[in-house]
Amino acid sequence: MASSPTAVISIGSKAPIKKASGPLRLVLTRLGFLVSALFIVVTLSFFLVSVTPGDPAQLIAGPMATAEQITQIRADLGLDEPILTRYVDYLGGLVQGDLGNSYFSKRPIVDELVEKLPATLELVLLSVLFATVVGVAAGAVGAYFKGRLPDKVSRFVTGVFQAIPDFFLGLILIYVVFFLLGLAPAPSGRVGLVETGPGRVTGSYLIDSLLAGDFALFVSAAHHLMLPVLTLGLVYAAYFAKTARSTIGKALNSQQAQFARAMGLPERTVVRYAFAESRTTIVTYAGVIFASLLGGEAIVERVFAWNGIGTWSLQGITKLDLPVVQGMVLVAGAITLIVYTLLDIIVGLLDPRISHA
Amino acid sequence: MKVMRQHTGATVGVSFIVLLLLASLFAPLPYDPKATEGGASLQAPSGAHWFGTDGAGADVFSRVIDAARIDLSLALAGTVLSLVLGVVLGLAASTKGKGSERLVRGLDAFQAFPLLILALALVTLSGNKLYMVVVAIALINIPRYMRLLRSEVLSLRESRFVEAAMAMGASPRRITFRHLLPNVWGVVLVQTSLTIANAIVVIAALSFLGVGVSAPTPSWGGMIRAGAGNMSSGEWWIASFPGLIVLLCVLAFNQLADAIGDTTARSHR
Amino acid sequence: MSDELVLDVRNLAVTIDTPDGVVNPVRGIDLQVHRGEIVGIMGESGCGKSTTVKGILRLLGPNSHVTADTINLVGKADLAHASKKVMESIRGRHIGFVAQNPFGSLNPIYSIERQFYEVQKAHKTGAKKAESREIALSMLKGVGIVAPERVLSGYAHQLSGGMAQRVVIALATTLGPELLFADEPTTGLDATVQAQILDLISGLVRTENRSMVLVTHDLGVIAQYCQRAVVMYQGEIVESGDVMQVMVNPQHEYTKKLIGSVPKAEGRLNVAR
Questions:
Q1: Quick one: which of A118, A221, B215, C19 is 20 to 30 A from A274 by CA?
Q2: Residue range A191-204: mean pLDDT, rounded
């Protein structure tokens, strides 16, 4: 939400694909960019977080702490070292897959990430799926009936959902669907308060509960996913609809569609052509939305008490748990960049103009 | 002004914002927004309390109006900072060449940040200083201005009239100020309207998470936070009215952006 | 050329709803096309010549309306009052359409072979994939493509402009339409290719005794390839008749200016040929 997907749409498409001469060169160029961009993300996040005035040691020690206690804590956390030394240490650990330990739980950041990431991925993936299907459908209707009633309705609804803050929509849904209608469970996280999750195989409750043969738990997990997925899905479907409307609209009015009609191809074939021509944009946009949801959905995790990396990082921030913040930024950034890289490759494969160059 | 006449959505939106601002600055509020009446907490909307009262017994209507002051000023401050720095840096980055190519790559990488998390971290680490909210908004929006300006200016540089100006020996400064800036003004205005909308949401999100504007000063996000728990027990009004105001403000600025966009697109034809 | 009418259009008008109000880019058009005849529609850009042919085929956007007393595709249907289904069966099968910029016409993401097959499928000719391929191969040979197999399995962007327009012509004539609309078919192509394409398309029309409506702003092209010319100005037909007559002895002021504006040498050269 803080990063509206419209602003980042060009990333997936502005790759220097046209310059690359072969698929290998393409992949190498993209990987090179990936590594350097990740390095920038790590460096920027490290310094931004480190140079901001504010003292974690003080916060950890609490208001009653003496100066010595604070100094002691600072030394324990390694905060007394010069910033460049800390940066080099951090990078050194990073290369070995060590993101440091949480100031509070003292557990390795990597362990906590592995534990919490599946909950977020499950939520985000389903939301992207929902947003794509609903958004493309709404956009296609708008494009086809451009300027007429279905388009006007679609644009109005889209405009409202685009303007609604996702956390507020979540609360509205809780009131309407849970409190008034009783169709959704209370916002208690991934399962009910008295239930426990399935044995961990993949980390996805939906899959793991099925693997364990616990159908009741599967239903409960699906039920608990309903409102958060609806919240994120509706907001991002609105963004999607806007892009889908203009992309499909352009394809429907293109000279190519006109020629297809002039050849006597039926309207549904012309629509299929338009979808096919829009597919790279749709795939790109789905990826962009996936990326901006990572981290962007933290606040919605909070609303639904979802125990993923969003809630985890929000807690980390309020406690000035710097390694948690950096870990979150790094993971979200890394997944984002990996998704963009994959997108470039997928888009290249889907588009004969690139793959048959 | 011509923008307004042709676009009812924008007219309604801007009137709403102006009215809200005037009310928050000058109108006598029915109740003290910070006062609490212990006995009258959690009252549903009624003639006495139009928007009901919250858990502490404060009047939701008075608080919603009063919150416009701080929320909208912060949003405007953040937008102005983003606009000024974004345009300057964007123009500076609008040259062809290795350096500016790399800079754009850097901006791309920056978009990979979970920006809300970053904004939250900055404000929290600063010890909850309000100016950091402004800085955070700028940090999120400056790259957007830069990308926008760069792409607009680069395509304008290719255009005939700039080529002609260069051929006639106009200085780079003259080209920038006489030929480029007037032509990117439309898209910059659109982006500015969108930035205000984005800033309002970011501020609300931050105060919803308990950062930035903090109680007892009323803010829309803070009020949504206070009423969040009540949503699952049926007292919808505490969070819904401030949420609705945020929604309406964002809608208003989105409409304004659309209207400006339509107008500039039309005058370009 | 015979006296047998193929297309008879009476009082055709197009209205388009725009955000700034309703406009009438084309009004009161009468147009007759006989078997074996090439009719040229000429006029400056924006005069409505392209809108006229697209209007007959109802290819204009959903915010436009086409009205006419009759658009009689003789022996087939009155297109002025035809349903969408009938229009779909007419396009491609009885009226072929070639536009300018072949890269815009061809589908960029399907192979050329697939695009031929889509046409067969749309008109329910019953041709299977293999059959469609054979037909496409012979069509491509017919438009002078040297390596049709390679073109067939390739994509539009791999072709040169001239080649792509040949493919478009092959597609447009696959089902043997008796009437062809060519809307500025050579605009944007290299000068040397332009003549080749025009020779090709007019040859295809002549050998099969088909008819064509050729829209162009190029008077030289009209003079060289058409038997009859129609001059359009600001959405209306101001003059029509035998090409020689229109070129040598124009009646309407606008036509005189139009012909007068062509550099002398070129005008004389083309008419003389």
A1: C19
A2: 83
